[in-house]
Amino acid sequence: MRDIAKKQFDGFSLIEISIVLLIIGIIAGGMLKGRDLVESVQLKSVANDVQNIQTAFASYINSYDAIPGDDPSASIKFKDVTDGDGDGTVSQGEAENVFKHLFAAGLIDSAKFKKPKIGGNYDIISENGVVKLQLSNKRNGALSKKQTISLMAKIKEIFGENKDIVETDPPLSSSTSQKYIIKMKIN
Fold first, then answer.
1. Quick one: which of 60, 91, 62 has its CA closest to 78?
2. What is the pLDDT of residues 129-167, one digit of tens each?
3. Phi, psi of 95 (to 5 degrees)
4. Cα(27)–Cα(25) distance, integer angstroms
């Protein structure tokens, strides 16, 4: 019986287990923070894309005295582009030519523009004569409510507090599982 009492059990002490759990917590927290940081950079990139497209849009108007997409003499100025009707507004049919005109003028890098870093696609749409950059996944929303609110904050950082250029479809609601289509005014 004496031998059983003398036998020691090897194992971890509570301090050792606590240190391991602390290290695991720090690593997990760092990974979550890193993911938030990456998402923040992606949303900042989208806000910068909006600013770049707005600048290119305004530059086209200043340089060619016509609205990209609506330019009635675009095919004379550039190769492989379609003319607009020149009525002073971009119709939905002309909206698909906006990126092509901007690209032909050397104001953006691609006729289709790049994909947003956050996911989804950029499309130019026209609603009641207002040209908008739409961020979506085809016909579905691309961003969560949290991402949408963060993007709106990033846009306000760049354009100022009074700039109301972002709208959501559907409007922001209390639903957390909803995906949102984001529309950002260009003109």
1. 60
2. 888 888 887 666 778 888 888 888 888 888 777 667 788
3. -60, -35
4. 5
